[in-house]
Amino acid sequence: MAMRGETDKRFGPGSHVVEIKDIKKSFYVYVDEGQTVLSEKRRWFSRKKPGELVAIKSFTLDVDHGEFVALLGPSGCGKSTLLRILAGFETPTSGFVTFKGNAINGPDPQRAMVFQSERAVFPWLTVEGNIGLGPKLQGMGKKARKEAVAKTIELVELKGFERAYPKTLSGGMLQRVAVARAIVNHPELLLMDEPFGALDAQTRNHLQDHVVKIWQSIEQTIIFVTHDIEEAVYLANKVVVFTARPGEIKEVVSINLPHPRDRTSEEFIGLRNHCTRLIRDKHPEG
Amino acid sequence: MGFRAKLLALAVLIFAGLTINFSGPAFAGQEAFETSGGPVDTWNRPIEKEFVVGKDIDPVHFVIGVAIAMVLLLVASNTFAKFVPVPLVRALTSVGLIVIVWEMVVYYKLVNQVLLPPPTTVIIKLQGHWAKGYLQIHILASLKRLFFAFFLAIATGVPLGFLIANFRKFSDYVDPLFNLMRVVPPPAWLPFAILWFGIGNPPSYFIIWLGAFFPILLNTISGIKDTQQIHIESIQTLGGSRMDVYARVMIPSAFPTIFTGIRIGFGIGWICLVTAELVAVDAGLGWMIEDARNLLDTPTVLGGMVVIMMFGIFFDTIFRAAEKEVVKWQ
Amino acid sequence: MAALVAVMIVVTVLRASSQDLVGAKFYRVLMAWLIFFVFAEGTIYYGVFKSILLAPPTAVIHRAMFYLEKGYLQINIASTMFRFISGFFIALTLAAPLGLLFGVYDKAYEWIAPASNFLRMTPPPAILPFAIIMFGIGEAPAVFVITVGCFFPIFLATMRGVREVETIHKEVVQTMGGDQMDVLKHVILPSALPSVMTGVRIGFGIGWLVLVASEIVAADSGLGFMIQGGRMRLDTPTVFVGMATICILGLTMDMFLKQLEKYVTVRKKGGGEYIYY
To answer: What tens digit of pLDDT does each residue of C231-249 get?
Structure first.
């Protein structure tokens, strides 16, 4: 396992933005009227002993400021769970995670998350309203808010749609709103959970370029979950390849190609093949 | 209008609806009936031979007039389709046809005039009531009752629904009771309400409240329970507190469903209003109809029915228009 | 009193064992019932409420048993149910075919829809006095009013169900060589059925409400009549017996309807509801 960073500076601010140390995440499995339900706690009135589902077996990783990390793996390998732990929606069953030297205590705008479904955008607010909600919650004044929102809208190229309702926007535009909504708070860490999975190929490529552009202009750390090998290699400078469930790190692949990357270049294809082989290794059927 | 402004407007409306009942005399317009001399009945109505004011309407002229009006409307809707809404015209035409048939059926003595008076008589009767202010009193009494109880139902149903949807402990205690009450139609509570409150306004408040409360409650519960987890998490990741989740996500997200519940609740409250007024009150449209029935004054009975129907249509239209505005983001 | 508490505990335990109640909820529901009964018995016993306002559960049960012995309760239940079922079924047999007819023929629909949307808004109890003038006091006005009340929801829902049938399904049957009757039988009826069921459910609810209302206002038998009679004699236990019976009947019909709905619609993968045909 390749690990980056200096382990003796564990609690110092500024060395690692995120530190994940040997975390494990498991759930109890109950069957309610034929439906399988995952639960964090044990119930006290149930007939059978619950099953156990291990989402993450053991995971350790350090992420530095300004890195673009891709978490790559097959479906169900625990990468989304890991992201949710980083975002603060779940807590690990054991092990610890720190953000800038402090423990993670729940969701925070500094660790903003962009969700997989484009329906995470609030349908009852306009584009402006959605993007401006974060600053409003932080107490920003009306004028400052308007400026911040306008700047972000330009960055995601949604100018002219400020007063549109999500009902009228396409999937790609909605995801742009979601990204804008996350970055307007200037988060230190941007977490993206397969945000382009539901979009068509062209929109996906377009948005990938967007993300790279944003990452380059606002220097921030991005952790990006995907099952698309090409996407991971195209975007990240560090690809963490997972095994199937229960998830563990297979290998961390560094990608040092400059942006914008050429999907047809030899180095790109070589790295992509390397990652493909890593993933295929545990899946004899392909 | 911003969301907060809308919420504020709604709260003001509810407050106004609740307090409006405490202004004015017990039944509106009661003074109008203080006659200076002349015999009056226990209800202060002047005892007259005929309640009819104005001339009779000639049935033939009436039928021809209605027919011409229908034709004109049809023509107008065809040529000026933009200004005249076609469904409305069609509805009016159907109603016009019924009215014509009705008039002719009675004119040609196919039906007993006491059992089914022709539209002309009904119109005259209504006109007479209106001229004396009789109709207005009852309309106002009914409306006051309805709005007071209706807004009370909103003021109790929405917060309770919110609590039930969000707090398991609360719902576990309260749910069995509500599930039982829900299946009992509000009119069944009438005798109980009369035992407790006597005849007059209070039992009708109770019954109308019961009728409007449950649709509002159930829809609020369902609307808030349907709040999507992804929206809750979105606002959390933006830095929202618990109050923010409640106020900025749950309520806007559930608002269309809640509004539908309010519309349905109004409809059922309307039915309960009429029911309560048939039995448990001393003024109001339902009372007017029942009283007229006891006097075998069929024109008033039918007239009252028509007035009730028109008010029902009026309010339903308003609600549907408002609903369209509320649901614009769905 | 003790017997009552025992009954409640047994009922709650039965529900719990069917996995309906899980964990703490079981205790809370039990507590809710116990509090209610203690409150009801206690307030009367200690004279907090005058005994005409609330009847203690024991008195209600005694009265109910008394009526059951004499057959008085059964007669009234039968009377009420007879009215309701007749009214409902007349409405059903009128509304469903008419709804189908008007739904299928567009021209007819366009003419009838606005008018029926208007007529729908008449509260059936408002028709009651007129019906009494026409038919006199007895069975007829109640059944008439219930029919009117049930008619419109079923009629409108059927029309809407027919109109919302997807054209693509109709076209499929036509390309398979089906004629109008086939389209009707294999596409329209099955697709419209869920909507009709919704209308039936709403009609049921309104019909039940109207039934009780008409019995209270103008009837000479039935549960509503029994309750009203009880009130006039200041006989509160009877009032509660009537209300509890109505409640039980309502719950039974509710369950029955839910079963019917389940039988008639079958969920396919993806959440669409189709008919078990």
So the answer is: 888 888 888 889 989 988 9
Answer left, alpha or beta for residue A26, where phi above 0 means left and psi between -120 and 50 means alpha.
beta
Q: Write the secondary structure of A149-214 as one string of H (helix), E (strand) and C (coil).
A: HHHHHHHCCCCCCCCCCHHHCCHHHHHHHHHHHHHCCCCCEEEEECCCCCCCHHHHHHHHHHHHHH
Structure tokens at A136: 């409003």
Which among A191, A185, A172 has a CA at the least distance from the CA of A121? Answer: A172
Chain B residues in contact with C206 (beta carbon < 8 A): 271
* CB-CB neighbors (< 8 A) of A46 in chain C: 22
The Cα-based distances of B118 to A195, B109, C126, C132 in angstroms read 69, 10, 19, 18
Residue of C134, C224, C231 lying closest to B195 (CB–CB): C231
Task: Please tell us whether the domain made up of B13-29+133-329 is placed in CATH 1.10.3720.10.
Answer: yes
C-alpha span between B231 and A122 (Å, rounded): 7
Q: Which amino acid is located at A255 in the chain?
A: I
A46 Cβ under 8 Å from any chain C Cβ? yes
Superfamily for the A7-11+23-280 domain: P-loop containing nucleotide triphosphate hydrolases (3.40.50.300)
Token duo for residue B197: 């409150």
- For A125-145, what is each residue's pLDDT tens digit? 999 999 999 999 988 889 999
Q: How far is C54 from chain B (nearest CA, A)?
A: 9
Give the whole-angstrom CA distance, residue B283 versus residue B161. Answer: 33
Q: Which CATH number fits domain C69-275: 2.40.170.20, 3.60.140.10, 3.40.50.300, 1.10.3720.10?
A: 1.10.3720.10
- Using CA coordinates, name the residue in chain B closest to C252: B183
Q: Are C233 and B194 in contact (CB under 8 A)?
A: no
Q: pTM of this prediction?
A: 0.82
CB of B161 closer than 8 Å to CB of B220: yes
Query: Is residue C153 a contact partner of residue C199, using CB atoms and an 8 Å limit?
Result: yes
Helix and strand numbers (H, E) in chain B are: 13, 0
**Cβ–Cβ contact A259 with C under 8 A:** no
Q: How far apart are the first and last CA of chain A?
A: 24
Q: Is A43 on the interface with C (CB under 8 A)?
A: yes
Cα C241 to chain centroid distance, Å, stands at 19
From the list C31, C110, C208, the residue facing B185 with the nearest CB is: C208
Q: A220 with A139: CB under 8 angstroms? A: no
Would the CA dihedral through C19, C24, C29, C34 be positive or negative? Answer: positive
- The answer to ipTM > 0.90 is no
